[in-house]
Structure formats: structure tokens, C-alpha cells
Design a protein that fits this description.
Blueprint (H helix, E strand, L loop, with lengths): L5 E2 L1 H19 L1 H20 L1 H9 L10 E7 L2 H13 L3 E7 L7 E7 L3 H6 L3 E7 L7 H12 L6 H13 L2 E2 H15 L4 E5 H10 L1 H7 L8 E4 L4 H7 L23 E6 L3 E7 L2 E6 L2 E7 L5 H18 L4 H11 L7 H6 L5 E5 L1 H5 L4 E3 L1 H6 L3 E5 L7 H10 L15 H8 L6 H20 L1 E3 L2
Parallel strand pairs: 2-5, 7-10, 8-12, 14-16
Antiparallel strand pairs: 1-6, 2-8, 3-4, 4-5, 9-12, 10-11, 13-15
Helix pairs in contact: 1-2, 1-8, 4-7, 4-18, 7-8, 9-10, 12-13
The structure holds 2-oxoadipic acid and nickel (II) ion (NI).
The site of nickel (II) ion has 7 residues, from strand 2 and strand 8.
């Protein structure tokens, strides 16, 4: 039972996310510069667009904007992933979605730990994209064994954080002092280590197999590799990055700019080359950590998502080698096949919406048999697009690739293995689509009930 002096998981998550951001600003100062730029662009964008301000307000997203960010880590073993799941649960973060990155030549599969309830999302939607290395995709048996042996020797958690996780599970919460300790101790898992746990030759052998394998295997912990604030205008932020001394990756990933933004658009700055001390006191370098920004739009239904995937595939055959401006022009042209208004996206069942009563709806009673379209036309209910809270594997792969150095295109055969991932995790991952569908269903059911309305078959 949760006792009154327990701190809510929402608060623990906010304290942790903010401590993580402070740590990462100290570790990667360019991330701090990027944060300032995003705050500046968001402020200007809101000043210039009262419509956007109203929309974010209605979606409960205006207040969360300043704390909103995601991060990413990569772990090496099932045990590490399972303990992380328990650590994130302390902060009200659940594994949502399964992403197979092997199809993009990256030997990992992933989930996103994030809050799932509307209220928790509107307080702080902090997400951590978490990848598990798939050693079975390494072809050389001796290298695979070597990597497994190295991973078996490390513990990425402090003894104290393990205690606090167990305490949380036993008492159903943490008090204020325990929360402070938890944040401090949990942060240790995500910290950067300059000392590798292997010698340079081992690092090199793993790197030759795939840079990402070396990144996961050769260090004491799964250092946070980027943090990503949410921008309201990614094109403008990308444009201003060079003024701040930040050099962005070549193109913005994801869909084009639209009146009715969909899913997720992302860009990043390239990973830093950092000094590493290898065993045997050899110096070297490693590139892993970068900064990223994202702009979020509406969550698509399976039908909408199929259209997106198909359009993106069409666009890709025409965008190879283009600079961002030309790339975006092609995207816009190809995506003109998708209706660009909230209303059309809703009517065609392409995106998820949250329904609520209007003022008129609030005083209406006993409406009887009707349909959604009529209720909207009568001004009794309104539909707001539900924001996409998840990730896009193709974009993720683009981000991975741009940070692995040019030319490192992996050659792993696409072979999603959700079952193996869930077994490592120790729990099923929640389907993101089911979550959106349920939020839509519940909001409509609630509105209909208040109106005393029934949908005609
Ligand atoms: C994760 C890349 C995925 C995103 O925003 O799509 C990601 C990684 O590089 O470990 O964070
Ligand atoms: Ni990211």
C-alpha cells in the first residue's frame, strides 16, 4: 500500500529526468546549447502561432514542453534489460512498442520505456529508447563468446539502487529522502566512463564487427548516448544550429512539414569523438554521444501508418544523396497524396483522436441515436489529434547510421524476434497502437455518455 509520505512516480520521473539533463549538459556541453536554442525557437513559434498554442493547451502539452525529452541507451544482456525495466517502473515508465533495428543493419532490438496514462504523459512524458544488443547476430563464434564473457563480468547497477528498487517494490513507493537517493544512484548507470573495460585490440575487433557492439560491450555502463528536447519547429531549429556552432546531420528524418503534423520528425548533431583510456594504459577515441531534436505530430492508425510507410518508401527511392532542402521538397511532393487537415485525417480513419464535449455539449442532454459526424457538425463535441508518443524505426536507423560514421552499413538479415526480446525483458511490451486506440475509445465513450447519446449502427 502506498502511504501518504510517498513521492509519486511522476515526481520521481521528473526529478530523474531533470538530473539526467543536468548531467548530460555537463558531459556534452553542446546539448546545453541545443536546449537553449530549442527554448528560443519554441518561444518564438508560440508567439507567432496562437493556433498552435491553443492546440497544445487543449492537448495538455503546453506545460510539459519545458520538461519534455527522450534519451537512449543500449544494454548488453537480458539481466541488464530486466533490471532496467524494474528501475524504470519506479518512475512510472513501462515498455511500449517493439522495434527491430536489424532490418536497418543495426544488431539490436528495442523498446521505449515511457509513461502510459494521459495524466502521467501530460505531467512529464520522459521516454528512454532502450536497445538490447543481439550477440547472436555476430557471426564469428569466438568474438561472440568474447563479448558475452566481457558483459558477464560487469554490473551496471550500484548495490544501493538495487536495494532501492526492491524497497519500492516492497512498499509500493519511495519517500522523499529515498527518492533523492534513488535519483542519485540510478544516474550512475547512465554516466559516461572514460576508461574502457577492455584493451585497444579487443575494442578494435568489436568495432570491426560493428561500432555499436563496441559501444555496448567495452564500457562499464550503458552511458546515455543522447537526450532530445521537443521543438515546435524543427526546420527553423535545424537552420539555426550552425549559428550556435552546432553542425546538424544532413537531413531531417521522418515525414515532411505539414499543416497537420504526423508522427515524428527528427534531426541530430554528430557524435563527439571522445578520448578513451583502454586497458594497458593505451589512449584512443570513441564516438557515441550526440544531441538530437524532435518535432511531434499526430499518432496514426494502422491504416494511416501503412500509408506513411508506403509514401516514405516511395520518397526514399528519390532522395538518396539530396541535401535537406531538396530532400524535403521531394517528401512534400510525395506526401501530398495524404490529406493534410485534422478533419480529413480523422474522417478517413488515418489518425487517432481524443474527443471531448464543447461548451454547448456540456449543457446538452438526452441526445439519443446519432453519429460522431453529426455531433461534431452540431458543435456538441470536438476532436483533438492524439500526439504520437513513440518512435520510428526507420528514423532511428537513420540516426544510428549518422552516428556510426559513414560507410558502416551493417549486413544483418532482418529478423525481428519480439518473443526473445520479451523473454529478456521478463514481460510483454505494450502495443502503442492499442494504447492510442483505447485513449480514443474511452474519450468518445465518456463524451457519448455525458450527452446521453448512442451511436447508430
Ligand atoms: C537510439 C536511436 C533511436 C530515436 O530518437 O529514434 C532514438 C540509439 O542510438 O541508441 O533515440
Ligand atoms: Ni532519439
Amino acid at each position: 500500500m502506498q502511504t501518504p509520505n510517498m513521492v509519486s512516480s511522476d515526481t520521481i520521473r521528473t526529478r530523474f529526468s531533470s538530473a539526467m539533463s543536468v548531467m548530460y549538459q555537463a558531459e556534452v556541453p553542446q546539448y546545453g546549447t541545443l536546449l537553449e536554442l530549442v527554448v528560443e525557437v519554441n518561444r518564438e513559434t508560440l508567439e507567432h502561432s496562437p493556433t498552435l498554442r491553443r492546440r497544445l493547451q487543449a492537448q495538455g502539452e503546453l506545460d510539459r514542453l519545458d520538461v519534455e525529452r527522450h534519451g537512449a541507451i543500449r544494454v548488453g544482456t537480458a539481466d541488464e534489460l530486466a533490471t532496467l525495466a524494474r528501475l524504470f517502473a519506479v518512475m512510472g515508465m513501462m515498455p511500449v512498442g517493439y522495434y527491430d533495428l536489424s532490418e536497418a543493419g543495426v544488431p539490436v532490438h528495442s523498446t521505449a520505456f515511457r509513461p502510459v496514462e494521459d495524466e502521467a504523459l501530460s505531467r512529464n512524458p520522459f521516454r528512454v529508447f532502450t536497445s538490447l544488443l543481439r550477440l547472436e547476430l555476430i557471426e564469428s563464434e569466438s568474438l561472440r563468446q568474447r563479448a558475452a564473457d566481457i558483459l558477464a563480468k560487469r554490473d551496471i547497477f550500484t548495490p544501493k539502487v538495487r536495494e532501492l528498487i526492491a524497497l519500492f517494490e516492497a512498499q509500493g513507493g519511495l519517500d522523499d529522502a529515498q527518492t533523492d537517493q534513488f535519483v542519485e544512484q540510478a544516474l550512475e548507470t547512465f554516466r559516461w566512463h572514460q576508461d574502457a573495460t577492455v584493451d585497444l585490440a579487443t575494442y578494435q575487433a568489436l568495432c570491426d564487427e560493428h561500432r555499436l557492439i563496441a559501444d555496448v560491450v567495452c564500457f562499464r555502463g550503458p552511458h546515455i548516448n543522447h537526450l532530445t528536447p521537443r521543438t515546435l519547429d524543427i526546420d527553423e531549429t535545424q537552420r539555426r544550429m550552425p549559428d550556435k556552432g552546432i553542425s546538424p546531420k544532413a537531413v531531417i528524418e521522418g515525414p515532411p512539414r505539414r499543416q497537420s503534423p504526423i508522427l515524428l520528425r527528427q534531426t541530430s548533431f554528430k557524435a563527439l569523438e571522445e578520448r578513451i583510456r583502454f586497458e594497458g594504459d593505451t589512449a584512443g577515441t570513441h564516438t557515441a554521444r550526440f544531441g538530437e531534436i524532435e518535432q511531434r505530430g499526430m499518432a496514426l492508425t494502422p491504416k494511416g501508418r501503412a500509408r506513411y510507410d508506403e509514401l516514405l518508401r516511395q520518397a526514399r527511392s528519390q532522395t538518396a544523396g539530396l541535401d535537406n532542402e531538396a530532400h524535403q521538397r521531394v517528401l512534400e511532393e510525395v506526401f501530398s497524396a495524404l490529406p493534410d487537415s485534422d478533419e480529413a485525417m480523422r474522417r478517413e480513419g488515418l489518425a487517432y483522436f481524443h474527443y471531448h464535449l464543447t461548451e454547448a455539449g456540456n449543457s446538452a442532454r438526452a441526445v439519443g441515436k446519432t453519429d460522431v459526424q453529426t455531433l461534431i457538425a452540431q458543435g456538441l463535441i470536438e476532436a483533438q489529434p492524439i500526439t504520437y508518443e513513440d518512435f520510428l524505426p526507420v528514423s532511428a536507423a537513420g540516426i544510428f547510421q549518422s552516428n556510426l560514421g559513414e560507410g558502416q552499413q551493417g549486413t544483418y538479415r532482418a529478423n525481428a524476434n519480439r518473443e526473445a526480446f520479451e523473454e529478456a525483458l521478463g514481460a510483454p511490451v505494450t502495443s502503442e497502437l492499442a494504447l492510442y486506440a483505447e485513449r480514443e475509445r474511452a474519450s468518445l465513450a465518456f463524451a457519448l455518455e455525458r450527452l446521453g447519446a448512442r451511436l447508430a449502427e
